[in-house]
Amino acid sequence: MNKVIVVFELASEEMAKKITNILPEALLLLSSEIPADISIYLKLDADGLWLYSESFAPFHLDLFYAEFIAKRSKLIARELLVRAANPKGGAKETKRALDLTAGLGRDSIILTLAGYQVIMLENNPYLAVILNYLSIKFAKQLPNLQVIYANHNQFLTESTNCYDLIYYDPMFEDGKMALAKKDMQLIDLLVKSHPTLEQNDKLLLWQLLKTHCQNKIIVKRDNKQQQAFANIEPTYSIKGKTVRFDVYQC
User: Fold this and answer.
1) Taking the model in full, what pTM does it have?
2) Burial of 92 per CB tally in 10 Å (0-12, 13-18, 19+)
3) Transmembrane region positions (predicted)?
4) How would residue 237 be classed by pLDDT, with cut points 50, 70 and 90?
């Protein structure tokens, strides 16, 4: 069964329909109707959204996001990504940012907390549903967050919009993944459960990025990795202990 499965209790039916409205198709089931042969699914109950799989204990997404938002809000100016985006201080006005590979949305949350209006692109259907839930459930804390279920190359090819900042984390596309954290392991699980045919033409992507960028392109890299785009040096980089953010001025 390759559909995205969302199991819900009767009181959560409205939310189940809302979070799956970005997918062309999804399978909504009452808690009493869970098939015995499914290995991964999302579940909505009175406590929020959970990810269930054969490989892990149930993962409570509400708790994960609540803790992440609370922790990052306190020291947002110190975040490496924020320093890369605004080296001279915080954004003075709301700016538009595009996250090409949102995953669970951690970096998009950071940009939103720093004052950006963020559009998250995600090509994995399970992750897209989770991100849609994030944007709805945490709308008060993250009022400028939106998700689009799309491949980034296709989206950029068809779009006519420009963005102050375009953010790109090619970790899973490059096949080099630091999976020490539980949430990263879950992303890996979801990506493998619904593999997609990503266009990995970096030259084409670079051309598309330049077309849609008004200010900066930021690329997340492991410190041991070379720059994402061959023979194109970043304007500057902000380095941490294990990762860095390469910044390309448009």
Assistant:
1) 0.91
2) exposed
3) none
4) very high
